[in-house]
Fold:
Amino acid sequence: MQDLYSSASPRYSRKHRSSSLADKDLKTNTGTLPIACGSDGRETWGGGAFLIPYCIMLVVGGLPLFYMELALGQHYRSGCLTVWRRICPALKGIGYAICIIDLYVGMHYNTIIGWAVYYLVASFQSELPWLKCNQTWNTENCSTMDEMGRLNETNNTYLSTPAKEYYEREVLEMNKANGIDDIGPIKFSLAMCVLFVFILVYFSLWKGVRSTGKVVWFTALAPYVILFILLIRGITLPGAADGISFYLTPKWEKLGEIKVWTDAAIQIFFSLGPGFGTLLALASYNKFHNNCYRDAIVTSTVNCLTSFLAGFVVFSVLGYMANKQNKKIDEMGIEGFGLVFIVYPEAIATMPLSNFWSIIFFIMLITLGLDSTFGGLEAVITALCDEYPRILGRHREVFVAGLLVFVFICSLPTCTYGGTYLVTLMNIYGPGISTLFIVFLEAVGVSWFYGVERFERDIERMIGKKPCMYWTCCWAIISPVFIFVLFVSSIVFNEDISTPAYTYPKWSITVGLLLTSSSLVCIPLYIFYLYFITPGTFYQRVQKMITPVESSDVMVYNPTLTTANYGTTV
Structure:
């Protein structure tokens, strides 16, 4: 039986990364466009209503927990399972919960990337297939933007654009499904696109961080180049100023809605990585004296500035679309994934050199998506290889192949005609509020059980300086309290899933809640399991379960091994 209180490090070859930020491994979630979309698949808040809670959540939650996970992973050089076994054995269930959430994300997120692959292939046709209403999948209600612009609002209420019908009736073929309770058979072409995504993921992850680092050089840098190209093009379009004004103008009444704050928190954690095990996994490959504080500041700053910049790219095009259709921006009817797969392609189709703009846009989406899926799946792989080094760690290539085959098979229902209903359900209830509870427990576990002072000493061993009071206050009080309030509020004010075109049945909401519970239940189950197998009295058991396991392989601070130049000061 495995020693559940062992402090031993993983017993397989663990390679260090060649540099801290140079490999871009810690930027795997940089381009998810959280401010621009602010969406959970059902609703889009718009930048103006989303920017303020996003920034507040960054300061009180995202950045402190980002730094905390980097430091933990680097200090203990292990993934989300082993690290909790060493700092607070009772909370090892957090690691299992994280692994389950990451698998849920992999099951539906790679499908979304597959949609982008479908669009990319279609972009090489001589004429973009969503430009006109002369395709076999178009209905009699199809109308181009120019035609809509000549009609008043009453006359175009029931019309749909070629891009909307292409997305719904050609890519997804939603018209062949009757909702989540009748999703129909698998669409072969879509399944092949998703399979292609999984093949790319495998050959990026199979050798570990060395192979991932080489791939991420492209997937992290290419989107920046494309983003700037799209930005220059976007701000030169007619109506772009209106879109940017809409983006930067806050809607103060929205700040009273708890869902805006909850979505902001979830987007921050998905964008930066806390609560998904990604940071623990990637930081575990750092050298012990790497300046993780500098990494936290630089990476999170670049991440959020990129998201802010992406807002200009998206909303400049929305302004152009509204101008062309003679509508206000808040009348565009943007919801869920439609922003990426309907509105933006629709705008691109009206531009000169539309094929070029479409190709680079979907290449950007694919690379950004791959960046994100690399992080989540690497977290699972690292955690399990660290926990079972003799079985899995030494046969990583085979294990990664088996894991991805399993995730791909589980994702096949999302490739059906009604797969988009499953994607939306998993997107809401898979990570969702369970991530809030996990990051809350992480802050509590490190600050209240492991101890802030002990954690400060760990950081001092690595970089030579203790963190300032801001970090300790956030870790111990501000972050856990703020996140717990959001978690409780999101449960109390939880709403049924509905869109203008479809309302999810009650049973599907129950399934979604079970999806959320299936990850969180790992935490109490492991506590009970550990309690019953630990010998001693009640007090002795509890004491041992919450006492950190001292490790004999922890290094002490050696200034000759630290990064020569600190990017920032603690």
Summary: The chain is about 65% helix and 0% strand. The radius of gyration is 24 Å. The domain at 25-546 is CATH 1.20.1740 (Amino acid/polyamine transporter I). The chain has one domain: 25-546.
